[in-house]
Amino acid sequence: MPSSAKHAPLLLSHLSRQRVFAQLSAKSRDALAGQFTLERTAAGVTLLAQGQLPRRLGLILSGLVRLSDPDLNLSVQLEAGDLFGFGATPTPQLATWQAVAAADCDVAWLSAEVLTQLCSKHPQLAYFLPSLVPAGQPQAASAQQVSESSSALNLLGTPIRALIKRAPITLAPDTSIQDTAVLMRDLRISSVLLVEQGLLFGLVTDRDLRNRVVALKLDISRPVADIATMAPLTVSANSPAFEALLLMARHNIHHIPVMDGGTILGMITATDLTEQHSTSAVYLAGDIYKQTSLDGLRNISTRVRQLQQHLAAADASAYSTGHIITAITDAITTRLIHLAEAQLGPAPVDYVWVAAGSQARNEQTAKSDQDNCLILDDAFDEAVHGNYFKAFSKFVCDGLAECGYIHCPGDMMAMTDTWRQPRRVWAEYFRKWVDNPKPKSLMLTCVFFDLRAIHGQTELLDGLRQQVVQHTKSNSLFLAHMVSNALKHRPPLGMFGQITLSRGGDNPHTIDLKHTGIVPIVDLARVYALAAGVTVANTHDRLEVSAQAGEVTEQSARDLRGALGFLGKLRIAHQARQMAQGKAPDNFLALEELSNFERSHLKEAFSVVQTLQGVLGQRYAGGRF
Predict the structure, then answer these.
(1) Residue 407: is its pLDDT beyond 60?
(2) Which residues have CB under 8 Å from 177's CB, separation 6+?
(3) Model-level pTM?
(4) What is the pLDDT of residues 102-136, one digit of tens each?
(5) Domains (range + CATH), the chain
């Protein structure tokens, strides 16, 4: 209800005494008072649930309000005159904390939109509002976007089974196209599954009817199997919705059948995951695949930073953020490959475009360069095919650079002749690196052991990978050298456990979160994976699988995964703050950005890494001599 005449004097009294609104003139406060709504709430009632704080600002007129994070068991108590919600509550807590009436209370509410407009007219107010970007600075994410992103990202931990809205709609493959369209119209559905003898045969969507029937003037009496997607991609009912999101983003699809073993449970669509087209990786990837020029891709790539800001605001995990941001890189890469083939013609021999480094590990952030290579079929002949693949790889790598993924400073890219070779040459590369572990060989192994196929004949990489891990497994000399190389990256802890800051360079008095925090964990996980002979590339997954293989204890693997997740979130949040301020994102964190609670956890994370580096170093001590 709008502020009434009865409560107006009380509200104006609070506005004149509240340190934020006291900055306004009496006339401005009088006008503002009419924009508030008043609400009387009994003790114990939730005022704003998790994810709702970004929607509005609350001013406590009487009583008590408790802000809390139920997951971390943290809380603060506010009293009359205090503000909470959008603007007043710091951004890191905005998406995860909730507000509950600790006693009977009166609260005056101001919408996020009105507050934003107010601060655009009176920019001095933003000084007192930590989650509101001051006028003149780039807006990170609106209150509505933060709230909606938070809601969408809650699906990342939700089983796909919980999102199924109806039993599967199925037809026999020999059903006519016309009868299929009539059924879809009558049931108001956008897809139907083709099933034969209880087995999934294919998938037909409204897009198929448009593109494969209407546009081509196809006879609608023909069987619907003629226009179906055969053997469609599927997801397990018990998988998190996060996996469906990634599958849709990477393959530019919007419908996925949900399976429970061999049983079809239903269908999940992109709109089941999120309605937010602007901030969803699914829709962003879809927009990428619609681009027909490099200019279009360059323009759309600017939304990647916005996506990371929204993920940070919604408190997404580093694991989820890395996978989502990398899915967009994969989509841009794949679309550039399509454009290259459209310009140059189809490839003369089979190939697979392969990502290396953080893209291969699904650990990218908005601050990433490119590491990639090209594995060619052994039928490749330099004299006949060389010019094509040289132009092809240059088109893609230069295109990635135009989209913000700068050229690798070490030239580890497919456009470099050395890293564009037939499979047999790649096999020889790995054999030499493993058998002769010199410093450069170890560095190259670190880069190219982390590989993942992006586009093309994936079998070219799969066979090579299996061959390599069999050669490295239980190779104690090689592993000892890898350990020695890994131990060059140390967490910044002093003799008495205090955090040591950089003293010189371009970023003094900071911590390099990447090279002294995350990279040491990546290196440890890589060694565990090499020793266990496992082929997964993601660091979190490597730790889990390596523990199952006995290369590291379950407890140590959990500790390292926890440290990796914490450091990753610090890095993502740090970069989001920089981007919100119009700065280029980097990895150099000042301790002033952290709370005492976060600093304590940072020391613990570094201590975990330091301890396990020591354990691994002792295990392989002397093995390289």
Answers:
(1) yes
(2) 209, 213, 218, 219, 220, 221, 222, 223, 224, 226, 227
(3) 0.64
(4) 999 999 999 988 998 898 888 888 888 888 754 33
(5) 8-137 (2.60.120.10), 158-267 (3.10.580.10), 317-435+444-459 (3.30.460.10), 473-625 (1.20.120)
